[in-house]
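Sanity check. The docking grid for zinc ion depends on where the pocket ends up, so I'm generating a full predicted complex first rather than guessing from homology. Inputs follow.
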Amino acid sequence: MDINFNMPVKVIMEEDCIRKNAALLKEYGTRALIVTGKRSAKINGALQDVTEALTSLGIKHFIFDKVMANPTVSCVYEGAAFAREHKADFVIGIGGGSPMDAAKAVALLAVTEIPQEQLFMAEPGSRALPIVMVPTTAGTGSEVTRNAILSSDILQTKRSIAAPVMFAKLALLDAKYMKDLPMPITVHTALDALSHAVEGMLSRRATKLSDSIAIGSIEILMECLKLLAFQKEQNISMEVREKLLYGSMLAGMVISHTGTTAVHSMGYSLTYFKNIDHGRANALLLPGFLEFVAKSKPESVKQILEAMGMNSIREYEVLTDQLLGERDGITEEEANQFTKIASEAKSITNSWAVLSKQEIYELYVSSLNRKRV
Ligand code: NAP
Ligand code: ZN
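Predicted complex below; grid placement will be based on this.
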């Protein structure tokens, strides 16, 4: 059995995680740049917990709170300039995948000169400021991956930059910050995590170890998703919040090893051009992708369905419909445009079952235009 698995992030998950582990922050520097979104971290308590911890340790901090959903290339260059201006020597990302990804890119660009137009072409470099992550959504697993997904207006799509130095040194996980996470974001991010674990199992780079982590992640995420499908109000228990956070972190470990596949490559255009949430975009495409894979790899899909506790792809699709509501629709022109972009993405071939251009087109149309089952 050949295994080569690298997971250099120290992960600590517990209630009041930041307060209890504040002393660890001293290891990373004396001038912290906090990278976060515009609002949520100020409301859910994560920003306050981090700034109090830093102040108690005598660590100076500077806040860059301009990160938008699906962060742009110009946003992270602005953050890197801000980091240099304040002589930050480490970076703390607080938020969902967007601020966490932005934090990784800022940590890299603060100490590595890469012209904007070469960002996705160049080797990203071997230096970055140390990174600490505090996730406030449970979906992307960005706290344990080495990728930053950025929106490029030059390329008219979302693209990943990745380097080993972009792995966080420390991830502090506390589900209490998700207490008031709105239901649609909870559902979309959970489905993103599920997609990571499932795509990880279908990746060419999957190993026995990544499959074991993926199966554990799928089981726990599906247990929660089945509950969320029947939850009318926003009364999700802390136990479920913790399970979602744990399951999404596991799924992040899976993709840090395997990468994502066609679902993510295709989902990016749905987000970039149609403003569909990242997790929702993947969730719309996943059942159709499973149907496609089942034609050539039925045993892999069977294993995934078993972990999901589902008897068929159809049964999973019904659950997806309950969670997502009406599909978002796609025009012929959009499907053609997105097919061209997805067929050129690197991860489209990172699976044993590779879609042809025609199959990508059909998957877009059938997934986005299909009526609820
Ligand atoms: P997000 O874009 O980070 O956040 C979505 C929304 O949720 C924002 O409005 C945010 O508000 C709000 N929010 C965050 N935490 C909250 C909380 N605790 N309570 C209430 N509202 C909260 O969403 P995401 O789905 O977590 O991240 C998506 C991004 O991650 C995409 O760009 C995707 O491509 C990327 N991604 C990266 C990886 C990876 O491996 N690096 C993997 C998958 C996805 P504020 O803006 O005010 O904070
Ligand atoms: Zn994702």
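Relevant for the grid: The two ends are 42 Å apart (CA to CA).
Also worth noting: The mean pLDDT is 96.
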